[in-house]
Amino acid sequence: MSEIPSGNQRGSDTGKYVSFAALFLFIYYGFGAFSPLITQYYKSIQLSGTQIGMISAVAPVVSIVAQPMWGMICDRFQIRKTILLLTLIVSGLVGLLFTTVSTFAFVLLLYVVLSLFQSAVIPISDSLALGFAKKRQLQFGDIRMWGAVGFALAAFVTGLLVERWGPSVLFYSYCVALLIAILFLWRVPEEVAESSRFTVSMFKGMKDLLRIPRFLLFLLASFCIIGTVNANNIWFSLYYQEIGGTVAGVGLAFLLFAGSEAPFMKLAGILVRKYGLELTLLFAAVFSAFRWFWYSSAPSTTAVLAIFFIQGISVGFYLATAAQFVRENTPASLQVTAIAIFSSVGSGLGTMLCNLVAGWIKDSYSMLAIYLFFGVMTAIGIIPLLIIKYGPWKQQVQQEEVTTTQ
User: What whole-number distance in Å separates Cα of residue 250 and Cα of residue 236?
Assistant: First the structure.
């Protein structure tokens, strides 16, 4: 029989929730200051579209190796908070070094180093929050939505600052935000379920995960869908100026876009309870494809801003439920590793391909063609989601968990 939580316990849980909310707020504030406006820095040092694509594509290659490595270390030694602390500090300090370089080779080198440490931040923070949410029967989206709030605020504020003082300000904002996040990291719990101890070898664990059909199909879907979402964060700044916008307008756009994610992440929990994870993910993916195809038709900046909530529907729903899908469809003993693999495929391989192709498309065709490509990629990603929902493995989740953990 479970114990009824006392008033002190409820108060403690509230404090821990606030710490998680602040942790996500400042982590994503740093990301929101960096990603949406980094192309303004590239533009200021006169990099070509192909060079921008190469930087944005090569760096995720590092995360493909680094994320599973970080995940395995965390699963093996149960030191998630220690690793997250290390990677937040190093990521922030490396970010500052961008203010000292202005050539393609040095920017590429710094971006690779930054990716090595930054690639651990999202999988580990997600894992900590998922463990906290599951134990207290909360929805992960209730915590993750604070990341959307931080990202939105950062994009807007940093956009104004960049237009006034230049792109170097985004690196200072990034560093300060990550260092502030550390203050709240100390207060979040590192809870490990009894079944989550490291019971298999590292590489056997990866092999077992990739033998789960639902997990493998979801990796394929996220390769296409998350890859385009992350690539949009890089290219939207140039796209928005291409259709007549300003740098400050880019910040306003991201404020509206990312700001819309928070309420939809909250709503995602309601949809999941009513319709299930699979339909919620499908719904988000369809809206995402529609968004990219619409962007490729060169709408006015007014229209792009007016229909800002389309990001909340597509990105908000998908990000709020993706990590939960991974957790519910993989063994408890490999939770961090599973999330790290998922992140390395979507945010690593998928983003690498989308950025590399986008850079070539920009120099060879146009910014509008980049978004046509994003639409096609997302439409392809819908196919494995349909198979997950209606294919032969839709009822075999529990069986796969049992078989894999034996």
Answer: 8
Tokens 């789960």 label which residue?
212
In a domain, 196, yes or no: no
The pair of three-digit structure tokens given for residue 277, joined into one six-digit string: 């994870």
Asked whether the CA dihedral 301, 303, 309, 313 is positive or negative, the reply is: negative
Give tens-digit pLDDT for 70-118: 878 887 787 889 999 999 999 999 999 999 999 999 999 999 999 999 9
**Residue 26 falls inside a structural domain:** yes
Classify residue 215: in a domain, yes or no: yes
Half-sphere exposure of 80 (CA within 13 A, CB side): 26
8 A C-beta contact, residue 287 and residue 378: no
Give dist(CA 173, CA 185) in Å, integer: 19
Q: Which domain holds residue 333?
A: 14-188+202-405
CB contact at 8 A, 382 and 221: yes
Q: How many domains does the chain have?
A: 1
Beta carbons of 272 and 139 less than 8 angstroms apart:
yes
Start-to-end Cα distance in the chain: 27
pLDDT, tens digit, 9 for 90 and up, residues 168-226? 999 999 999 999 999 999 888 876 543 333 334 456 667 778 888 899 999 999 999 99
Q: Which domain CATH number covers 364? A: 1.20.1250.20
Contact 202, 266 (CB under 8 A): no
Distance between CA atoms of residues 103 and 109, nearest Å: 10
Pair 158, 38: CB distance under 8 Å: no
d(CA 55, CA 46): 14
Enter the DSSP assignment of 198. -
> 33 lies in a domain?
yes
> How wide is the angle at C-alpha 394 spanned by C-alphas 388 and 400, nearest 5°?
105
- pTM higher than 0.90: no
- The encoded tokens of residue 175 equal 């560093």
